[in-house]
Design goal:
heterodimer, A: 135 residues, alpha/beta, Hypothetical Protein Ychn, Chain: A, two-stranded antiparallel ribbon, 21% helix, globular, B: 98 residues, five-stranded parallel β-sheet
C-alpha cells in the first residue's frame, strides 16, 4: 500500500440548497477511515455549513450539521475557515460551531479544530497538499 | 398590477438577487426562499441590495440555516408556507429568478 497522502476538501456551497455539502461530508468520513491526512477548508458560501443552530424540521431535510462535531473523533483536526468569506457574509467565529479534537499526546486535552485563515494563507495550505477535492 | 419576485439562490453565489431587486417596481414583492434567505441577513454585504424593497423570507428556510429573526435586515417579514401561498394569490404574477 502507498503512503498516507495529504487530502484537502474545499467546501464552497451553502448546506441545504444543493447536495454538495452533505456529499462532501460523506467522502470526508470515508477518506478518514482510510487513514489519510485529511484537512477541510470552508470558503465562499461553504462557511454557512458550520453555522450554529440549524433546525431543518420545517424543510423535510436531514440536519447533518451535528456531524461536523464528530470530525475530531475521526482524527480530522485541521478545519480551515476563510476570514474574507466570513466577513463578507457578516459572520464571526461566534456564529460557527465550536469544533474541538482531543490530543492523546497531551492527556486528551481539548483543542480547537477551526483555524481562521486569510485567502493568502489558504493558498499556502492548498500548496502543501497532495490532493485537492472540491465540493 | 404587482409581481411576486422569487429568489432561491445565495446573493454571494450569483447575481439573481441583484437583478431581481433592481428590476422591481411599484407594489412588487420580493420573497427569499432556500439559499436566497442569506440575502436578508442584516450584517451581510448583500443586504444593501434589498434596501427599500418590500421583502419577505420563508421562516422554515431561515431556521434550517440557523438564522434567527433578530439577524434580519429591518422591515423584513418572516412568513410560513401558508403565507407563501397568500403572496402567490395576492400578486398578479410570479417571476422566479432561477
Amino acid at each position: 500500500m502507498s503512503d498516507t497522502k495529504k487530502f484537502l476538501f474545499i467546501n464552497r456551497k451553502a448546506p441545504y440548497g444543493t447536495i454538495y455539502a452533505w456529499e462532501s461530508l460523506e467522502v470526508v468520513l470515508i477518506s478518514a477511515a482510510f487513514e489519510q491526512d485529511v484537512s477541510l477548508a470552508f470558503m465562499d458560501d461553504g462557511v454557512y455549513q458550520l453555522t450554529k443552530g440549524q433546525d431543518t424540521s420545517g424543510i423535510g431535510m436531514k440536519n447533518f450539521s451535528p456531524t461536523y462535531a464528530a470530525l475530531g473523533d475521526y482524527e480530522i483536526t485541521k478545519i480551515y475557515v476563510e476570514k474574507e468569506s466570513l466577513e463578507e457574509r457578516g459572520l464571526t467565529l461566534d456564529d460557527l460551531q465550536h469544533l474541538v479534537w482531543e490530543d492523546e499526546d497531551e492527556d486528551y486535552a481539548e483543542k480547537d479544530s477551526i483555524r481562521l485563515v486569510s485567502r493568502a494563507e489558504l493558498g499556502d495550505v492548498m500548496a502543501e497538499q497532495d490532493v485537492l477535492f472540491n465540493f | 398590477m404587482s409581481i411576486l419576485h422569487l429568489v432561491n439562490k445565495s446573493p454571494y453565489e450569483n447575481s439573481n438577487l441583484n437583478t431581481a431587486s433592481s428590476i422591481m417596481k411599484g407594489d412588487d414583492v420580493l420573497l427569499l426562499i432556500e439559499d436566497g434567505v442569506y440575502g436578508a441577513v442584516k450584517s451581510g454585504k448583500a443586504s444593501a441590495m434589498i434596501a427599500g424593497q418590500k421583502v419577505s423570507v420563508l421562516g422554515p428556510d431561515l431556521a434550517a440555516r440557523g438564522i434567527s429573526e433578530d439577524k434580519l435586515a429591518d422591515g423584513v417579514d418572516v412568513i410560513d408556507y401558508a403565507g407563501f401561498v397568500d403572496l402567490v394569490e395576492s400578486n398578479d404574477k410570479v417571476q422566479s429568478w432561477l
